[in-house]
Design brief:
With 416 residues, the chain is an alpha+beta fold. It has eight helices and 20 strands. A hairpin with a 6-residue loop joins strand 11 and strand 12. Helix 5 crosses helix 6 and helix 5 crosses helix 7. It starts with a strand and ends with a helix.
C-alpha cells in the first residue's frame, strides 16, 4: 500500500528549507530512518520515516521549503500503511540541535551563498565557507552525490589565487582571524567538531557580537539549604530520582524573576520596548558527550521542588541520549549554566539572545564568614549573572542577585 510521508510537527517553524535529501527512489528504509535534513534559523532537523518500506516517489528537491503537513515522498509500506496517530501523539521531527537567534538585525556575511540548489553542502560547511570569505558554488564536492565537504573547502582555500581572507572585513567591520597552515610547523590532525557545536557556535558568536554583555559576581550562603537538600535527596533516591542544588536555584530564580521582571523579558525588534513575559520557562545547560544542550523546564513557577527535580533528571537523560526534540529546547525566558559538578570560581556565561540574562554557577566552597561577632564556616555558592546592558543596568543586576542570594540563604523565604 502506498503511504504518503508528510512533514511532522516541527514546532513554530514554517517554510523551512530542505538542505539535504538522504534517500533516493528505490531505497528500502526502516521506520525512523532519516529521510532528509531541514534547516531553520534556529535548528537543524532530521525528518524520520513513519513507516518501513520502499521509496517509490520523491515529491521535493533540495532547496524547496516545507512546513508541517507538506507532502515529501511516497513509500510502498511493508504490511500496509499504519493507522494515523492522533494529533496529540504525532512525533515531532528530531531536532539535532538548537541555538537561540538574537532579535537584533544581523550583519550580512562577506561571501555570497548563491542558493541551496547550486551547492550541495551541509549548513556547517556553508558557514565554514562564509567565515573564510569563499563562494561555495565555486567548489567541487568530493562527497557522495557531489556533496561539498569541509575538506573540499580547505583544499580550495589552499589552491585559490583569491586575496587572503585575513585582508577581508566581516559584515560588522571586524577583520577575521588569519588562516594559518599549521602543517608547516609540525604534525597536525583535523578533528571534526560535534554537530551541536557546529550549529550553536555561530549563534553564540552572534549573541556575543550583538549583546553588550556585563557579568555581575556575587555569593550566596547555602549552608542551611544544602542540609535540607541532602535530606530531600536521601528520600528521593528511594523513589529513583535525585535532588540537586540546581532544583533550588531554579525555584529561587523564578521568584527573583517575578520581582525583577526585566530579567524575564526580551528586547523588542524595534529596540524601543521590552517584551514583558508573564510565563517562566527556565533553560539549563546540560553537558552531553556531543557538547552542551539547553533543555527547558516549562512553567517552572507552577511546579514544586520534587516536580522540578524529576524533570531535570528526565531532560538531562534525554539530552545525553540524543533524544531531545525541538519543543524540549524552545521557549526559555531565562537560562542557568551550572559548572558546580566540575569546578571553577566564576565565569562569564554568554546570554542566550533573545533572552536578556543568564545565571552561571560554579562549585560551592566552605569559607570563613564574619557574623558580627566571630568568623564561622559557611558553605558559599558563587553566582555569575551575565546580562544585556540595554535591558538591564548594573544596579538592577545587583538587586536581582541580592534577591536571589536572600532566597537561597533562607529556606523559609524560598518556600513562599
Amino acid at each position: 500500500m502506498s503511504y504518503e510521508v508528510k512533514i511532522p510537527d516541527i514546532g513554530d517553524f514554517t517554510e523551512v528549507p530542505i538542505v539535504s535529501i538522504l534517500v533516493g527512489v528505490g531505497d528500502v528504509i526502516a521506520e525512523e530512518d532519516a529521510l532528509m535534513e531541514l534547516e531553520s534559523d534556529k535548528a537543524t532537523m532530521e525528518v524520520p520515516s513513519p513507516v518501513a518500506g520502499k521509496i517509490t516517489e520523491i515529491k521535493v528537491v533540495e532547496g524547496d521549503t516545507v512546513s508541517e503537513g507538506s507532502l515529501v515522498l511516497l513509500v510502498e509500506a511493508e504490511g500496509g500503511a499504519p493507522a494515523p496517530k492522533p494529533e496529540a501523539e504525532k512525533a515531532p521531527a528530531a531536532a539535532v540541535e538548537t541555538a537561540p537567534t538574537p532579535v537584533v538585525a544581523e550583519a550580512p556575511a562577506p561571501a555570497v551563498d548563491t542558493g541551496f540548489g547550486k551547492a550541495h553542502a551541509s549548513p556547517s560547511v556553508r558557514a565554514f565557507a562564509r567565515q573564510l570569505g569563499i563562494d561555495i558554488v565555486k567548489i567541487n564536492g568530493s562527497g557522495r552525490k557531489g556533496r561539498i565537504l569541509r575538506e573540499d573547502v580547505t583544499s580550495f582555500l589552499k589552491t585559490t589565487t583569491a586575496p587572503a581572507p585575513a585582508a577581508a572585513q566581516t559584515g560588522m567591520g571586524i577583520p577575521p582571524i588569519p588562516v594559518v597552515d599549521f602543517s608547516k610547523f609540525g604534525p597536525i590532525e583535523e578533528v571534526e567538531m560535534p554537530r551541536i557545536k557546529k550549529i550553536s557556535g555561530p549563534a553564540l558568536h552572534r549573541s556575543w557580537l550583538n549583546v553588550p554583555h556585563v557579568t555581575h559576581q556575587d555569593e550566596a550562603d547555602i549552608t542551611e539549604l544544602d542540609k535540607y537538600r541532602k535530606e530531600m535527596d536521601t528520600m528521593a533516591k528511594e523513589d529513583g530520582y535525585r535532588v540537586t542544588l540546581l532544583s533550588f536555584v531554579i525555584k529561587a530564580s523564578v521568584s527573583a524573576l517575578k520581582e525583577h521582571w526585566e530579567f524575564n523579558s526580551s528586547i523588542h525588534p524595534d529596540g524601543d520596548k521590552l517584551i514583558k513575559k508573564d510565563f517562566y520557562n527556565i533553560g539549563f545547560a546540560a553537558d552531553t558527550p556531543n557538547g552542551l544542550m539547553v533543555p527547558v523546564i516549562k512553567d517552572a513557577d507552577r511546579k514544586g521542588l520534587v516536580d522540578v527535580s524529576k524533570e531535570l533528571m528526565e531532560l538531562s537523560a534525554k539530552a545525553r541520549a540524543g533524544e531531545l526534540k525541538g519543543p524540549d529546547m524552545q521557549g526559555a525566558t531565562f537560562t542557568i549554566s551550572s559548572l558546580g559538578g566540575i569546578g571553577g570560581t566564576s565565569f562569564t556565561p554568554i546570554v542566550n539572545a533573545p533572552e536578556v540574562a543568564i545565571l552561571g554557577l560554579t562549585r560551592s566552597k566552605m569559607a570563613p564568614v564574619w557574623n558580627g561577632e566571630e568568623f564561622k564556616p559557611r558553605l558559599m555558592q558563587p553566582l555569575s549573572l551575565s546580562y544585556d546592558h540595554r535591558a538591564v543596568d548594573g544596579a538592577l543586576a545587583a538587586r536581582f542577585c541580592v534577591t536571589l542570594k536572600t532566597l537561597l540563604g533562607d529556606m523559609r523565604k524560598l518556600m513562599w
